[in-house]
Task: inverse folding
């Protein structure tokens, strides 16, 4: 017997004792009532005040039994939380099921009842045998709509949840080594006392949630009290289960597991960079990369190339990847990518006109370029709101900006998102944002009227406004405040009642937000950088690009330019435009030329 198993079982009994004591407390009034009624029936308690006392005790006992019965019913029927995953049927991944069953046989433990994927770098066992899960079983990938898997059967073994990045980055042998201690956890999970203790804790947790959501406020306090009473024992029980599983898995690929754990740490780093730097800009525009797991291979390969400590890791790519264990890896990658957007950004559960996929080949044009144009439009809308003249390269002015001739109608934005013309940062919302004069943000070229006077959205207008001769930075603060407020308005407008939010419902708020709120200075730096990139693309032949670790980048002659950020910060933080002007001059960028914003 593994060292942790006795400890886990003793802690499980401690948790069950909390349940037994709670049940006993609920039955005490009924026991008193039975004793009083029996004593009255046999004549042992004759005369006053025993008839009244018996009646009161019986009423109290009935009330306690009704309340306790309702509480027990809620605990038993409340659906425990289930992690959103992509369930896999055995037909969709027969080789993966075979690998897992072989692991279970070698460790002499029950095999998991099913396998599911999560868009995260983690793996665990999850019990889904609750009756509520059987009533609302999710669609199982590869088994048709409405399929109910074996994991929903009463007393079924837990489900093995695997992080999808592991399948694409790890080799088959590495995945096997990483999953061994996880699969070994099905052994302790099959013990009746441990299973009952886990079910009791999950029921209490679900009851707290039900009490908060359905107006049953009286349910939550006793459930929280019981959770506090068994919290320490439940935590120690899980530690004992983990220790027992780890010990049982010692004999399975132990040497390889040490190497595989290095790949787990690398996967964490690359996956985080891919989500925050690459996927998040696309999600904010109503697009979701359809092959995140394939992208993580490119990101981690690039990370291996840049990091000295990861030298030699790319040689592993010649071995069989774990995703070969899937029958349709491309379709499963797309399903997990959509789930990642739902979990980390709050996107809809299904693709639609305002929430469409994007391939990696189209990412620079459909995401990077549009991101820059949208932010440049928002930047000029903020300048309009501050009444900054479009025809002068100087600083802010209190006089209204001159109206420009109407521009031709902008082409329709690609399917999947609203272009800048339909956003609060476009010309149609400039007046609502507080602009003193109607300044057009549509595209303009050198042949349009007023182009010689910096008409339209130009980089020169931004440079002139942010040039701070006094060194106090007031202009940048005002512009950053406008941009922050405009972004807040856009986020409110993109809620459940607008755009892609119509399909979101309660998924409108991400379960695991990727980034904390950013400062106004950071947002201003992003918008000024976007304006510079637009000017470089329009007047100097630069192109938008994708870096697997850093996201949107500017390419000049096919090479990435990473020297722009410090020059933009010098302009914003010090009010000094000279380093940026020198950079623009070296590339042949014309800051006075209007840029296209749609």
Result:
């Amino acid at each position: 017997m593994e060292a942790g198993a006795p400890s886990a079982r003793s802690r499980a009994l401690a948790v069950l004792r909390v349940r037994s004591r709670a049940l006993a407390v609920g039955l005490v009034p009924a026991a008193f009532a039975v004793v009083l009624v029996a004593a009255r029936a046999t004549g042992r308690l004759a005369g006053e005040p025993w008839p009244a006392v018996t009646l009161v005790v019986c009423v109290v006992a009935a009330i306690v039994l009704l309340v306790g019965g309702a509480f027990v019913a809620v605990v038993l029927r409340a659906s425990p939380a289930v992690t959103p995953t992509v369930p896999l049927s055995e037909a969709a991944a027969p080789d993966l099921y075979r690998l897992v069953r072989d692991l279970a046989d070698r460790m002499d433990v029950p095999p998991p009842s099913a396998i599911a994927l999560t868009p995260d770098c983690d793996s665990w066992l999850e019990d889904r045998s609750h009756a509520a899960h059987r009533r609302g079983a999710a669609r199982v990938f590869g088994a048709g709509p409405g399929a109910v898997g074996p994991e929903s059967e009463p007393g079924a073994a837990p489900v093995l949840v695997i992080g999808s990045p592991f399948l694409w980055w790890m080799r088959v042998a590495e995945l096997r080594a990483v999953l061994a201690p996880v699969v070994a956890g099905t052994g302790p999970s099959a013990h009746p006392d441990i299973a009952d203790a886990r079910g009791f804790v999950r029921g209490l947790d679900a009851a707290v949630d039900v009490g908060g959501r359905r107006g049953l406020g009286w349910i939550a306090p006793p459930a929280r009290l019981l959770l506090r009473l068994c919290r320490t024992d439940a935590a120690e029980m899980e530690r004992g289960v983990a220790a027992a599983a780890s010990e049982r898995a010692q004999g399975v690929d132990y040497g390889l597991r040490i190497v595989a754990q290095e790949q787990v740490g690398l996967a964490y780093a690359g996956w985080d960079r891919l989500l925050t730097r690459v996927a998040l800009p696309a999600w904010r525009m109503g697009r979701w990369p359809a092959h995140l797991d394939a992208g993580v291979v490119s990101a981690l390969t690039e990370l291996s190339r840049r990091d000295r400590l990861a030298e030699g890791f790319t040689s592993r790519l010649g071995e069989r990847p774990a995703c070969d264990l899937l029958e349709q890896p491309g379709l499963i990658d797309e399903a997990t990518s959509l789930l990642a957007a739902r979990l980390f950004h709050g996107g809809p559960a299904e693709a639609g006109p305002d929430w469409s996929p994007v391939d990696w080949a189209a990412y620079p044009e459909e995401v990077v370029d549009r991101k820059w144009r949208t932010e440049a439009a928002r930047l000029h809308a903020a300048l309009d709101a501050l009444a900054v003249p479009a025809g002068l390269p100087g600083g802010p002015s209190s006089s209204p900006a001159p109206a420009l001739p109407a521009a031709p109608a902008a082409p329709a934005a690609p399917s999947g998102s609203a272009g800048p013309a339909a956003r609060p940062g476009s010309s149609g919302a400039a007046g609502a944002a507080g602009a003193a004069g109607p300044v057009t943000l549509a595209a303009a070229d050198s042949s349009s009227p007023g182009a010689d006077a910096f008409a339209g959205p130009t980089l020169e207008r931004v440079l002139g406004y942010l040039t701070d001769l006094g060194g106090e930075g007031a202009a940048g603060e005002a512009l950053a405040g406008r941009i922050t407020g405009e972004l807040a308005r856009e986020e409110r407008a993109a809620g459940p009642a607008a755009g892609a939010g119509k399909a979101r419902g309660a998924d409108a708020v991400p379960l695991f937000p990727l980034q904390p709120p950013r400062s106004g200075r950071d947002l201003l730096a992003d918008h000024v950088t976007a304006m510079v990139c637009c000017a470089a693309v329009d007047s100097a032949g630069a192109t938008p690009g994708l870096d697997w670790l850093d996201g949107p980048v500017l390419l000049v002659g096919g090479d990435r330019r990473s020297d722009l950020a410090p020059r933009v910060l010098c302009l914003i933080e010090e009010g000094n435009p000279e380093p940026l002007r020198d950079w623009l001059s070296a590339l042949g960028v014309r800051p006075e030329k209007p840029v296209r914003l749609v």
